User: What shape does this take?
Amino acid sequence: MTPRADLLTELEPSPVKHVTSALGQRAEVKGMGKAMFKGADGKMVGLKNVLLVPNLAANLISVRRLQNAGMDTSSKGSKTYTARLGERKLWDLHEDRDIYNEMWQIPAIRTDRGGEFLSKDFSTWLKNQGIRHSLTMPYSPAMNGIAERANRTLTETARGLLIEAGLPNYFWPDAVRHACVAKNRALTHVGEDKWVPYVE
Assistant: This one.
């Protein structure tokens, strides 16, 4: 929605005659058209079915409509960023696995001896990518310390949540999921550029 008719092209009567604000105030809709604006990458972006509402104080955009149209949105401070899903994101990546080639080379991975890590397909793929694969010794979780510590942290947090809330053990999956979400959103670096590992 916009109060500015000069931003709209192909202006026509709107089937919507009034809109209601979050405070319950009604405003008259004078028409509907197409709005064009320049995106951060310099390309022109068009929005269809933009309502002309002269009584608005500022332009409003529906995040839900953007997401229904296949756009991914995220906010930081007073800015909102959008990206068309499956088309262009921060980098020109056509598939998630392209991040491997565009961002960094993974020199090595260490896994336990689970069947999914010992398959011929997985070993061939690692070899083709130039990734060294090391396996931990059986019954020696200390060799995979970081992953084991993360598992311990999640387990202890989930156990504490269940005890504190007085919930039965069948809530265990929910408690672990909650512990994981909380851990992923906690600050992991303290300094001038504080950051969180999960950004929606």
Notes: The chain is about 30% helix and 25% strand. The helical segments are 63-68, 98-103, 115-118, 120-129, 145-165, 172-185. The radius of gyration is 25 Å.
